[in-house]
């Protein structure tokens, strides 16, 4: 079991620093943002499972298996004494594993509650201050001179445009903006961003957590851009993006203090429109998908292997 714990610890380190660093600097995710987004989710899930699993397996190693450790320790948690085979370092590892799992779960729940509370508040304000846009279901118009467009997710979704934006855009540009915002809603980008926002909130001192959240937010924007490009044309989307600018989507990102698209992200999206639409080949895409599956499978298989293992 100690070997498994060491392997899980090494795997967690790889997923915590070098692999996310390489992925955040790679060029191919801009060509296949959906596959890159799946890989980022696999890295986050696999890294969390590996960190917790490493501590759990090491702490349970004196009993020879996870089930054996549970049988040896649970009856003595309140009645004592703790079996002497478990040293202080083993008990500390088990406590840290449980604390880390609880910390991550509570941060996810708290972030979700805050996001839902903010979404409800935004829907109330939208109902009060805006009017339905004729011919565009789930779209509201806000009387405001600044050109803005954003979406508010939830059970009841809404795309919000301002008068200033509608006046500044032609029909093709307006179609591109609406398609972009609806892509965020239809593809449930807020749920993906929520998970990475919670990870960043749980580990604010962890530099990769911030890098991952920014990368995922940019990939979500690119996915929405791709949908808009199918509804309109690249030049119309470019003009619309320049009109909206970098501050055009507060509703999609500000619901719980997450990353807000900035000028750097806008420049990356605009530069992408200048490049030919080259998707990753089927072999490359399959390799990334298999890599994502293996990243998640490794800690799960390791934990299952030590569930009833004998030392």
Automatic annotation (TrEMBL):
Keyword Chaperone: no
GO biological process: proteolysis
InterPro entries noted in UniProt: Beta-lactam_resp_regulator, Peptidase_M48
Names of the cofactor(s): Zn(2+)
Comment on bound cofactor: Binds 1 zinc ion per subunit.
GO molecular function terms listed in the Swiss-Prot or TrEMBL record: metal ion binding; metalloendopeptidase activity
Protein's name according to its UniProt entry: Zn-dependent protease with chaperone function
The species this protein was found in: Agromyces hippuratus
């Amino acid at each position: 079991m100690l070997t498994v714990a060491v392997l899980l610890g090494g795997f967690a380190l790889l997923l915590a620093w070098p692999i996310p660093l390489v992925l955040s600097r790679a060029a191919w995710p801009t060509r296949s943002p959906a596959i890159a987004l799946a890989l980022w989710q696999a890295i986050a899930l696999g890294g969390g499972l590996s960190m917790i699993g490493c501590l759990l397996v090491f702490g349970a190693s004196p009993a020879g298996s996870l089930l054996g450790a549970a049988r040896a320790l649970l009856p003595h948690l309140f009645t004592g004494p703790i079996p002497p085979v478990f040293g202080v370092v083993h008990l500390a590892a088990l406590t840290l594993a449980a604390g880390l799992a609880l910390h991550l779960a509570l941060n996810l729940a708290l972030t979700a509650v805050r996001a839902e509370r903010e979404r409800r508040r935004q829907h109330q304000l939208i109902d009060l201050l805006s009017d339905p846009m004729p011919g565009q279901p789930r779209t509201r118009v806000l009387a405001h001179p600044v050109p803005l467009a954003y979406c508010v997710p939830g059970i009841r979704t809404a795309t919000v445009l301002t008068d200033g934006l509608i006046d500044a855009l032609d029909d093709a540009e307006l179609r591109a903006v609406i398609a972009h915002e609806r892509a965020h809603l239809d593809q449930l980008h807020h749920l993906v961003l929520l998970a990475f926002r919670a990870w960043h909130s749980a580990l604010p001192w962890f530099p990769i957590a911030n890098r991952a959240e920014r990368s995922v937010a940019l990939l979500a924007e690119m996915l929405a851009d791709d949908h808009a490009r199918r509804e309109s044309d690249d030049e119309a989307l470019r003009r619309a993006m320049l009109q909206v600018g970098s501050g055009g989507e507060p509703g999609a990102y500000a619901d719980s203090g997450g990353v807000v698209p900035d000028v750097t992200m806008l420049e990356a999206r605009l530069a992408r429109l200048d490049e030919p639409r080259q998707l990753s080949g089927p072999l490359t895409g399959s390799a990334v998908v298999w890599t994502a599956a293996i990243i998640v499978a490794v800690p799960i298989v390791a934990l299952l292997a030590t569930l009833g293992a004998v030392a």
